[in-house]
Design goal:
about 5% helix; mainly beta; 1 helix; about 50% strand
Length: about 170
């Protein structure tokens, strides 16, 4: 843990009974680079049927996407999305996500929010679970809403819009 505003965990835990729940809404964009010279998504495994599957079933990738305040790649950096995604549906194009949202700037610097769940990538307003967090977001729970802002098929570059609705202490 880092930062002057982060209480030691033991002290925080001892005082949890008197702590007040807080709700926080955060909005940002993933810069999802699937190709080119500096990708941020790397395929690490695939099943025997991935190549013939219409849903890419069985492909697993690691992610380390830049998070920005706006949709432009040169927008203010707020953090990184790091974790694993896997195509997990034989019938629809949907991925299972396990991502840590790491805030690297601003008042949440050093804190994380963990997002997990099924993401049907061609739908709008995709709902994912917030299942935990660290730092400012200890014991986080809530909902993340994801939408594809844009995707360039020629460069394999996507911009994903996320809004987090977090309850925490």
């Amino acid at each position: 843990m880092s930062g002057a505003n982060v209480k030691p965990v033991e002290e925080w835990f001892e005082n949890l009974g008197q702590a007040k729940e807080t709700r926080t809404k955060i909005h940002f964009y993933f810069q999802d680079v699937l190709g080119g010279e500096s990708p941020t998504v790397y395929k690490v495994a695939q099943s025997g049927i991935t190549a013939t599957s219409p849903t890419t079933f069985g492909q697993i990738s690691m992610v380390d996407d830049l998070l920005t305040a706006g949709p432009e790649p040169d927008s203010e950096v707020v953090g990184r999305a790091q974790g694993t995604i896997g195509f997990a549906d034989l019938h629809d194009t949907a991925i299972h996500m396990g991502l840590n949202i790491l805030f690297t700037q601003g008042k949440y610097k050093g804190s994380t929010v963990t997002v997990s769940g099924r993401n049907p990538i061609f739908e709008t307003d995709r709902e994912l679970a917030i299942v935990g967090g660290t730092g400012c977001f200890r014991m986080a729970r809530g909902v993340a809403i994801s939408n594809t802002h844009s995707f360039n098929v020629e460069t394999n570059y996507g911009v994903l819009e996320y809004t987090l609705y977090i309850t925490h202490y």
